Amino acid sequence: MSETAIIIGGGHATAELATSLRDQGWTGPIAVYTQENRFPYHRPPLSKAFMAGTTAAENLSIKQPAAYEKAAADFHFGVTVTAIDAAAHTITLQDGSVVGYARLALATGSRARTLHVPGAEAAAHAANYLTLRTLEQAEAIRARLIPGARVVVIGAGYIGLELAASAVGLGAHVTVIEAQDRVLARVTGAEVSHFYEAAHRAAGVDLHLSTGVASLQVVDQRVTGVTLSNGAVVQADLVVVGVGVEPNTALAAAAGLQIDNGIAVDQFCRSSAADIVAAGDCTSHPSDLYGRRIRLESVPNALEQARTAAATMNGKERAYQQAPWFWSDQFDLRMKSVGLLQGYDQVVLRGDPATRSFCAFYLQGTRVLAVDTINRAPEFLLAKRIVAEQLQIPAAVLADDSTPLKEALPPAA
Fold first, then answer.
1. Which candidate in 30, 44, 186, 302 could, as Cys together with 280 as Cys, close a disulfide (CB 3.0–4.6 Å)?
2. Are 231 and 215 in contact (CB under 8 A)?
């Protein structure tokens, strides 16, 4: 059997695996197969700093090539893996060649969801109809964000709103279309949603909530307008679809691995197949904190899972259990969130949203399930501990902004 460790992917989890695998004791060859044509790069800035023009493409690298060279991780760029034979411990590449492995890591990430409406098939061939997942897509969008450009963003999640904020800051006329009745509906409570709606409208973004897309108007391989569910038509020079992502599980599923809203892994990032681990957006894992299997789309999750997967590939046990956290930059607002709010029955605000600096605590009974902090870095660090340790703090104490939150917490263990 080969002594090679193979990693399939090209994002944050891949970058961390490529070096952590060696750091944690792997002595054999390390080979990385990625469809990308470059080393892994930071994706969150694509809708933020890169789109706004404050960060250049050359500054997006997660790690410098020297780090991979030190780890003796051999990257194979622009390569598609077409099959995995878990029993034979081999992978098949697009050119038909077969490569053996001793351990295999899947870090295949996720892909943007597409719209299925009249005109979408024709729009897929239009240069001004894009999603935002890759640097190439970000560059194509950025080139069209000129003053006065009519930009339509479909979807008011993190990506859609970050892009809207960047675009309006560059002088574009921005319209955001959202099928739900509020922005960020999947990830925040109504109080935070309404705060961001007000912030975007104040900046000049035209929000259409509780509104679907009925069809896309395409003329000469160019999307010229978006017909809304209410019959209105929004003219467009650029349309960006941001309606969520789907995990890339086809390769794993075809190999017989268990799929459950992602490649199903345990707390050690082991898949259902021997000697195959998985990490990042493509996986779902059991959460002791929430008592269910969850799938996370976040950089911190990808990095921590990659470290756990590297340990597992080296025969070590490093259980992955972390309170999920996320961040979003829009205008001068930095939101940092910890935890998952599903199941909350009370929201407690700390601070006044009018000051553009406050926290929202999501409680289930007396337990804090999740916290959103907006321009409140010190509280975010405390919130991570509150959620992870399931601390019990009275709502009145959480709401009292005159007393430092730190004073309400028991001494750290």
1. 302
2. no
Alpha helix ranges (H) inside 74-134: 120-123
Query: By CB neighbour count within 10 A (0-12 exposed, 13-18 middle, 19+ buried), where does 368 fall?
Result: buried
Tell me the two tokens of residue 405.
């939150």
Across the chain, what does the average pLDDT equal?
96
Length of the chain: 413
Q: Report helix, strand and coil shares of the chain as percent, to nearest 5.
A: 25, 30, 45
Report residue 5: phi and psi, to 5°. -100, 125
Q: What is the pLDDT of residues 215-245, one digit of tens each?
A: 999 999 999 999 999 999 999 999 999 999 9
Distance set, CA 332 to CA 52, 173, 325, 341, 397 (Å): 12, 19, 20, 24, 28
Strand partners of residue 218:
223
Nearest to 199 by CA among 349, 358, 53: 358
pTM: 0.95
